[in-house]
Amino acid sequence: MTPENPTPAGVDSDPYLLEVSGLTKVFEKPRETFFSKKQTITAVEQVSFRIPRQSIVGLVGETGSGKTTLGRMIMRLVDPTSGSITFDRTDLTALRGESLRRKRKQFQMVFQDPYSSLDPRMTVRSIVEEPLAAHDLLPSRQNRDEALGALLTRVGLRPADLDRYPKEFSGGGRQRIGIARAIALKPDLLVADEPIASLDVSIGAQIINLFASLNLEDRMTLLFISHDLSVIRYLTDYVVILYRGLKVESGPTKDVFANPFHPYSKQLLSSLSNTGEGDTSRDKGEPLSLPLCPFHELCPVREPVCRTEPPPVRTGTGVNGLWPRDMACHQPLPNEEQTP
Amino acid sequence: MGEETPLLAVRNLTVRLTTAQGEIIPVHGVTFDVHPGEILAIVGESGSGKTLTGLSLLGLTPKGARVSGEIVLRGESIGGFSDARWNTIRGARIGLVFQEPQSALNPILSIGTQIEEILLSHPEAKVITDKASYIRDLLTRVGLPNPDRIVRSYPHQLSGGMRQRVMIAMATALEPELLILDEPTTALDVTMASQILSLLIEENRRRKTSMILISHDLSVVRSCAGHIMVMYAGKVVEQCASDRFFLQGPDHPYSQALLRSRPEKEGFTRSDGPLEAIGGQVPPLWNLPEGCAFAPRCPRADDLCRRETPPWKPRQKSPDPKDTSLEGALCFYPGACP
To answer: B90: how many CB neighbours lie within 10 A of its CB?
Structure first.
């Protein structure tokens, strides 16, 4: 931590809202036959990072990289196998039942599919009222319409939309309803899992702008899960790149995109500028035995040690504010001081 | 005619449908050429008519649709065919890859059976002595490891990327001259999408297959298309070479707005300002505004645009009389932003 970096909140001395440490999720595969041994899949392996308050952090990776599982663990929708999640100085992994439920109003989620994540039989009013009622935060009857109307206005809908049904809205409109539901409780952390993947370009731009303004004006911290690299580059302050469950690299988005360190990040980010030629590798084969580097078979700069030893996590020594760059690789970090 | 005759020439293609809201024209006077070996991209938002344009080229319009205009494949007019005659075109001469490999494959037939079905239904298109090894070669060519296992697999046992590879193997099984790809990478993630695109580009180079790529994703279009056709509310609003589109910029305000609504520019982040989203929505086809359909969302629109249908203004042509390009924009005021 650098002392010259003032805490954005100004009130809290801890500059980080969320810290995940050694987070791991192992899923059990169904047995092939009754007598066969249980097989497991490691979806997320020993992932650690800290999210500075009021920042936007991007979680990037392809399908199967564990980004959705990681997001769901942070939301406490999936129980981690090991590791800890510290949210606003509370250990979320230790919370159960009612205490967890009460804590939930501080972290909310926007889902990928605006078609299946809204109950078609509920009106917009009941959709956005539900979280408020669950936490006994419903405004009094005389102010309720006004408060809910203001909430809809905040996400770009009209107060008159309160009594309509999700099916009456386009994809972008439904995603706005999902966002209204998620921000109804004024959470500190908003986790958005591929929120624009199913939307048209111009509608996607409106939703991205909405997220940016929730961060700027409502001071929400955002964890933005996406495979859309241009959007990550535009929207986020910090980025975490996952490959098959392992955090291969993280750091300030600007630095990572300008100069990726990890061989996988280099390959991934080259798809931003290439002409579709870069990666012609095969479909993924069998799951590798972590904790060896999951990328070593495809890596252009692999060494014999990559086959025998798990990759060490290297953290940059350069001054990079709240989030120094790091990567998990046997290759040494390039001399970081040179990057401005 | 120009120096080369187009493989596919579409003139004034119009599809009319009667719906509960009255008659709509989801494809309205669409005119374009696809030259041999060319990749043409059709770009637009949902509801712009791009998918239906693609389907019309295979006679796959919904029941009750009234199709007019001309579709000429290698000099032969194929519009207005009966279903039986369309079947000689489908798969054999024009292949189609759907957006959702999940729903386009039959869940209860093995991959091998589904590919074999294509070969059996077009015995005239290709003489194949050893079907099993031909299918294995096909699957290997689209980059699927272990083709013997894939042949016996069912769609649910494959990942999205693998299913899309199977779709491409099926669409190219009879070596059609033209491949129509409807959002081929939308359901896939980045790395998988870029692999599928390289596969398609390779196919295009290797066999000189012409392609029509239907997509709303400009980064996909940029990486492979030679020409771009932008559609809005059923009409072609601009045609342009890809280099020109991305380097100098398109002429139609809608194309320009589409380009600006994506954060493609390096170094442009949220602290530099919001993305320029296009305000409003695509108007419903049964309630199109007077004049230009884009006028209500267009920053450049004036009274003329709101009153009269804009003309097609060809882009300034080279003095070469052989230049038969269809480049231009459907706009009263085309050109760079003033």
So the answer is: 20
